Amino acid sequence: MNFAHLHVHTEYSLLDGSNKIKEYVARVKELGMTAAAITDHGVMYGVIDFYRAARAAGINPVLGCEVYVAPGSRFDKTAVGRDEGPILSPGTSCRE
C-alpha cells in the first residue's frame, strides 16, 4: 500500500499515545504498508526500538518528533504572528 501515517504517537508520548512499537509494526505489516512513522511528543526515546523492529519486518521507518517552538521564552504566553488565521502553504487561502 502506498500510504504511511506520518503523525503517530507511541507509548513514549506521555498521556497521548498508547501504541506499542512491536504491535504497531506488526499491524503495519499485516496491512501491507511499506513504510511507517513515529512522531512522539518532544522525545525520541522510541526511535531505536522502532527502527530495529521496522527494519526486521521489512518496513521503511520514518523517524520524527512533534515539537513546539517558542519565539522567545517558553514562559512568554503572548501570541505572536497568528493575527491572519491558520498558517497555510504559500499560494493557498482559507478565505473566500
Main beta sheet: strand number and arrangement?
A: 2 strands, parallel
Detail the poorly predicted runs: none
Q: What count of helical segments does DSSP give?
A: 2
User: How far apart are the termini?
Assistant: 36 Å
Oligomer: single chain
- Which overall shape is indicated by the principal axes computed on the Cα atoms? elongated
Overall radius of gyration: 17 Å
Structural class based on helices, strands and sheet pairing: alpha+beta
Spatial arrangement of strands, main beta sheet: 1-2
Helix content: 10-25%
Strand content: 5-15%
- The average pLDDT is 84
Number of strands: 2
One letter per element, helices H and strands E, the order comes to HEHE
Structure description:
This protein is of the alpha+beta class and 96 residues long. The protein contains two helices and two strands. It has a two-stranded parallel sheet with strand order 1-2. The protein starts with 20 loop residues before the first helix and ends in a 30-residue tail after the last strand. The model has no long low-confidence stretch (mean pLDDT 84).
What is the topology?
Elements: H1 21-30, E1 35-41, H2 47-56, E2 60-66
Short description:
The chain is of the alpha+beta class and 96 residues long.
What descriptors fit this protein?
96 residues; alpha+beta; two-stranded parallel ribbon; 21% helix
